[in-house]
Specification:
alpha+beta, 8-stranded mixed β-sheet, 376 residues, 7-stranded mixed β-sheet
Length: 376
């Protein structure tokens, strides 16, 4: 396990080996990394030892607007809600902005949610617990036998996560928290593009977070366009990376908003998820909805399908073994078996409707129905 130094620039933030082995709009559906402090918590829970993959990966982004009120157990009210969001929405990965997470806070969260979550964070220099900061929350159920890695691109503003998805596939997710100022926002996208180019980092598969700007005037109420320089800077980046606004591509004629400014009631779709053009056909289950915690942002979510995975059905029903010790069911099974034997002996000439195969199937259907009725 390696934790990067506190200097600026691009560097590995954390690496860990896994063991082998009230809705604004709900889109219609188609179809162990650990950040470890210098004083790690004792007896960490190992990752799942049996490797597994997911045919559909659910990811989301949310600006939680600060750490929240600290509770006696070291966490906060907001992070208890984050844990609930991950569980109820069955998310593999949640990108968080305005996390306000120092290394000490990250260690506390990883110790508290040791069995459920992994938290990776990039803090704002000199303002770790008071401003900005981005973080990834990864469900341990989504981890497979591979090495997840996180790289800090711009401290407190951008962090890249390589999330193993299948044995030969990793999803590269970039979490961003863009500045509010138009001039700083414009410079941010340029700096991000240059950082990837200078360090020879491969472009991400998914770009998500709080963009603090919109590309289309329709994404604001009241309708108004953002500065052309800001839009051009982001468009240049997404064009180079061949990415598009997944929700907008799927819903070109709809309006939805993720941020409410309480002072004047204006709304905007600042929180978005961009995906590579090659992944857009695999995206589905878009949603924009209230997160259930104290923030002025909505949670934006989608899922990505891994079409390389085999189709897995519900499986066949099997009778509970406990029924074999149930006297009433044993009597029923014996009665059905004797009836089957008598009917088999009565067959003198095999026909299409009267034969051993038909009788055997009827016996199994009757036995299954009796077993299901008995287990209720």
């Amino acid at each position: 396990m390696r934790v990067g130094s506190s200097g600026s620039g691009n560097r590995p933030l954390a690496t860990a080996a896994a063991n082998d082995g009230a809705t604004s709009y709900d889109g219609e559906a188609r179809t162990n990394v650990r950040v470890q402090s210098p004083h790690p918590p004792p007896s960490p829970t190992p990752l799942h030892t049996s490797p597994h993959t997911s045919a559909r990966l659910r990811i989301a982004t949310l600006n939680i607007k600060g750490f929240g009120h600290r509770l006696p157990n070291g966490t906060s009210d907001k992070w208890l809600c984050v844990n609930q969001i991950m569980r109820e929405r069955r998310l593999a990965c949640l990108a968080i902005q305005e996390a306000h997470l120092s290394p000490a806070r990250v260690a506390e969260l990883n110790a508290l949610f040791d069995r459920q979550l992994l938290v990776l964070a990039s803090a704002t220099p000199q303002h770790q617990t008071t401003a900005g900061g981005v973080a990834f929350v990864v469900s341990k159920k989504a981890m497979i036998s591979a090495v997840p890695t996180a790289t800090e691109i711009l401290p407190g503003r951008a962090m890249l996560l390589s999330l193993p998805w299948a044995r030969d596939k990793a999803l590269r997710v970039l979490n961003v928290y863009a500045p509010n100022s138009s001039s700083e926002n414009t410079a941010f996208w340029t700096a991000l593009r240059e950082a990837f180019h200078e360090q020879a980092i491969a472009p991400p598969d998914v770009l998500l977070g709080d963009f603090n700007m919109v590309e289309d005037a329709l994404d604001r109420i009241p309708v108004r366009p953002d500065a052309s320089a800001v839009c051009a800077s982001l468009l240049d980046l997404t064009a180079r990376w061949r990415m598009g606004d997944s929700w907008r591509l799927a819903h070109p004629d709809k309006c939805a908003y993720t941020y409410l400014q309480a002072a004047n009631g204006s709304q905007s779709r600042l929180d978005r998820i961009y995906v590579k053009q090659s992944l857009q056909p695999m995206a589905a289950d878009w949603s924009i909805s209230p997160p259930g915690l104290s923030t002025d942002h909505s949670i934006v979510q989608l899922s990505l399908a891994n079409y390389c995975m085999p189709v897995i059905g519900k499986g066949r029903w099997s009778m509970p073994l406990g029924l074999l010790d149930d006297p009433l069911f044993v009597d029923t099974m014996t009665r059905l078996g004797l009836t089957l034997t008598e009917r088999l002996h009565s067959v003198t000439q095999r026909t299409e409707c009267d034969n051993a195969q038909k009788l055997w199937k009827s016996f199994k259907d009757d036995l299954r129905a009796e077993a299901r009725q008995r287990t209720k």
